[in-house]
Amino acid sequence: MTDNAANLQQPIIDLQNVAVGYDGENVLSDVHLSLMPGSFTFVTGKSGAGKTTLLSMLYLIRKPYKGVLNVFGTNVNFSNRATLANMRQRIGVVFQDFRLLDHLTVYDNIALPLRVRGMNEKEINRRVMELLRWIELHKNVYKLCSTLSGGEKQRVAIARAVINRPDILFADEPTGSVDAEIADKLMRLFVELNRVGTTVVIATHNEQLTSSYNYQRINLLNGTAKLLPPLKRI
User: Fold this and answer.
1) CB neighbour class for 152 (10 Å; exposed up to 12, middle 13-18, buried from 19)
2) Is the CA virtual torsion 203, 207, 208, 214 positive or negative?
3) What are phi and psi of 35, to 5 degrees?
4) Integer Cα distance of 176 and 150 in angstroms
5) pLDDT in tens, 53-90
6) How crowded is residue 174: how many other Cβ atoms within 10 Å of its Cβ?
7) For a 10 Å CB count at each end of the chain, is N or C smaller?
8) CA distance readout (Å), 147 to 107, 144, 183, 200
């Protein structure tokens, strides 16, 4: 078996007996989960169940209080800042509050991850404009993000997260601020990204969304997390 084939057999995210929370109080306890490379997973649960908390741990902003969290085969608990920084470069995140740089244009916000990588401007322009056309913001390319509507900011945040073609994409309620037509287009973008190899994890309370796509779910309930099979497509 080749190294690449062996890697495909190993979870890209693995949690064993993990607890995470705030100020010594657990939000989630005794979590055992494994996600394989190239998987697509919804994180579901009522408001306050811990969806955002779980995601913040998985995209390496928060460490668990106890247990073992492995991402890309590396134990996060014992990783130094440089190792965590390198791992984060392989991760894309769509935050619920967008976290855009409002003093920059739409174009510059989306181009930022590619510029950090040192990509040449011609290739950056090609990728950014292609993505802007897909999310129907190509007419807003030079607008400051501070002037955009909530739905437009949502789309820019998603574009910025996926432009780098990350190994893992985490999205926290990514369709919450857009209409049904744009939500469907954004989901097709996530599906296509997954199809070419990105592991996708989406937190949502939208039951219609999860029932419309045939993907597994992590359901959060009473401080626990359970991996469930896909819902039947409507």
Assistant:
1) buried
2) positive
3) -115, 130
4) 10
5) 999 999 999 999 999 999 999 999 999 999 999 999 99
6) 26
7) C
8) 13, 6, 21, 30
Query: If we measure between CA atoms, which residue out of 229, 222, 225 comes closest to residue 57?
Result: 225
233 has a pLDDT exceeding 60: no
| Element at 216 (helix H, strand E) | strand 216-221
Cβ-proximal residues to 184 (8 Å cutoff; 6+ apart), any chain: none
Q: Residues for the chain: how many in total?
A: 234
Structure tokens at 174: 């990514």
Instruction: Decide: 18 and 68 in contact? Cβ < 8 Å.
Output: yes
DSSP assigned state of 196: T
Burial class (CB within 10 angstroms; exposed 0-12, middle 13-18, buried 19+) of 126? exposed
Q: What is the pLDDT of residues 81-125, one digit of tens each?
A: 999 999 999 999 999 889 999 999 999 999 999 999 899 999 999
Q: What angle do CA 35, 37, 38 make, to 5 degrees?
A: 105
